[in-house]
Automatic annotation (TrEMBL):
Coiled coil: none annotated. InterPro entries: CTDL_fold, Sulfatase_Mod_Factor_Kinase, SUMF_dom, SUMF_sf. This is Gliding motility lipoprotein GldJ. GO terms for molecular function: formylglycine-generating oxidase activity. It comes from Segetibacter aerophilus. Keywords: Lipoprotein. The keyword Cell division does not apply. PANTHER family: FORMYLGLYCINE-GENERATING ENZYME, SULFATASE MODIFYING FACTOR 1, 2. Residues 459-481 are annotated as: Disordered. The gene is gldJ. Transmembrane segments: none annotated. Pfam families: FGE-sulfatase (PF03781). Residues 25-344 form the Sulfatase-modifying factor enzyme-like domain.
Amino acid sequence: MTGWKYNDKNMGGYNVAKAKNVKTGPGLVFVQGGTFTMGATTEDIMGDWNNIPRRVTVNSFFIDKTEVANVHYREYIHWIESVFSDPQYDAVVQGAKPDTLVWRSELAFNEPYVEYYFRHPSYNFYPVVGVSWKQAHDFSIWRTDRVNEGELINAGYQNKNTIKTEMAGGGQENFNTKAYLMGEYQGVPGKPKKNALKDAQGRPRTHVNFDDGILLPGYRLPTEAEWEYAALGYINQNPQVRKSEKKRGEENNTNRQIYSWQNDGYDNLRATRRGAWQGSFLANFKRGSGDNMGVAGGLNDRSAIPAEVTAFFPNGFGVYNMSGNVSEWVADVYRPLTNQEADDFNPYRGNRFQKVDLSGGEGNLRDSLGRIKMVDENDSTLRMRRNYQRSYAINYLDGDSTSNVSYGYGLTTLVSDQSRVIKGGSWNDRAYWLSPGTRRFLEEDQSSSTVGFRCAMIAPGSPEGNGRKTGNFFPKRRQKR
């Protein structure tokens, strides 16, 4: 736009990385976005009327292929116990551990699961349970930091010995992506073999900026809309996915699915193709009172409790167990009528707009865990904005002062600003809850033996991914004068 060349030290040294696809992070699969009808697909037998069907659009994103398993969460605990080994961090270590007592019941013999489910190798790849929403949120931050730290070490921009320092009780001095980008964490710079990064004077630099395209976006819990869209896997109904600009699928989305797979069975729950698997259940759930897995010699789902995270039938996006196994935390704050109130593009309730806490001054922006300290934006500075006026938007239009609605938590309702949505149904639920449109809630500091989670990540760039262009491109034509 100026005639000045990019990546030229003699013309200002403005460095621009070439546009490229975001690398698929460990454990993730790509979900091509689109429009769909979010909400109920079956009769509302609970009478909640909290999932009114509504047409929305979800942009493309990444989501975990499977639920987070015990072995994955134990890696997190291992890191926490090593980095925060100093006794002053004991509350941090204990606060990260799952609550194994969720298995207890006054009238059931579940004590072995209390002792063994999370730790025994036989349950390595079973979904972790007993994890609260807050713990799942913190796990996502940790996962982001470990993945990005690994990216920098593999590219040579951080010395691999940094890991040894961290794991030897590094405490606050552990890698955090945001702290690194803000210059609050230095670590030990590496010596990349082929360093394409330059400063304004054309000299090689070892500190990576986000616009260099090396670091990945953050892992996080999926929004309810993302989770539900990924669960339905509608891409199976539109098979001619664009392979060139001359061929693309039709906008075909006519068959509402009850569960996370196409309705090709007479009761939607069992495999119908002839062969060894004919009649087998496609998900892990409770068929009826007292029937968690069928009769010996003919077990219907072969799982009395949660099964391995790669068990059962993957859907159109290749995602496992979006119906059954364990219900899953999503990012949203629960409100019965959010579907009617939220935007129709990337709907979500739970925003709390924050900024970096600069009160400590440069060099003191991190908290005791090594993360950048954040504070809510000041509402007095937002009065002139047109798109939002308050930093706390969790109860916007439903429980805030402008809506004239109040929630008497504990008196007239169990819904509060700490209520988070859970989706998908579990090993101990009837088939009704397996439908992606159903929704329930649990307080964000509570946990259950039937609730786990998986992570998601934004997918910057083209909604089709794989190097596709954004928008429709037509042959160039000379304009008539």
